[in-house]
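seq as requested:
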Amino acid sequence: MPTTKRILMAGIVLCALSCTSLWGNYYYNSIFMRAYTSARQTSMGLNSSGGAYIWSQNPLTLPTNPALISYQNGFNYALSRHIFPTETVTYTSSYMGFGGNGWGVMLPSANLSSGFGGELEEEIGQLSISTQYYGFGINLTKLTDLRMSSEAKEPRAFNVSVGFSLARFAEDQWSFGERSGETLDGGFLAEFTPTALSDAPVDFSVVAGANFYNLFQGEIVRYRNKQEPMIYGMIWSAASRFAIRTDNVDSEIFRKICPNFLSVTAVVDYDDICYDKDAGDRGSRGVEIGLMNTFFLRQGENYHAVESKTSEDKIRTLGMGINLQYDDLVQCEWNYAEYGPGDDRVHVWDMMLHVNFWKLMAIGTK
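struct tokens:
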């Protein structure tokens, strides 16, 4: 496959076909800022999926909606890698997050390409793209009780979180030269958990929210001393989860290793970003089934309903995950996803380490 086609295919794959309707110079101006790298997210509908998925500490999912940062608890580190059909293009990403009791921050970390955050490289040096996200999130419901602690609180029926992230973008391509830009993104989430179920060995939650890209539409990129607009818009997200806990199991060690017998999670996202008004509806949907809070199976699709509304272009996604933890003190997670047709199939994996140092310090002071 010629090098030019390889680069083009890598760009299309990374963006999950989510911006192919851009007009003019919008195509290359910050398109890769939305190339997220969580394998869990990818397996449930590609890069616009999971904006309301609050049940993970993996910092790779946080750019989907900066309000998710408020759910960080302790220290979290994750890295990922895309494996493309062409071996000349690589994409890796790494982020870390930390927080507690309704507040959190995220920062880019060293990735497998000797860079920070997300980085795409074409091996023969024709293309290099990097992205970094810096963000924070706060749970407004807990704002009056904000402190550096993971101490257990009474269950709340309703939680509202907000977050903001600064996204930095830089590209160096031999045919276009260097360009760069920054955007400020903002998001919110509303979580509803019926308190009537607090005494039952089940969990049920419904979450909805949105991520607003490029809040100040005057952001630009610099391209041979020219100024060009960057993409803006929003993604609306919703998610719901039902889980059966292991509260009735006699073994305390078993309950700490496997807090749930079964969990079922569904996500839906509607993409209203970087398209003209006649481009049609875009979005994603996916489902996750968890067994013993250890083994996870995932499936999703990313769709584009064309103008006639009589058909859809869909990308099917599949994935799995393995989670090992002990009482929210220490957790290791591995996720895998794949999508695309035949020989052009793309494979994504990520790994995450979670350490709840708030609990560890509390144990040490007893």
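The longest strand covers residues 158-173.
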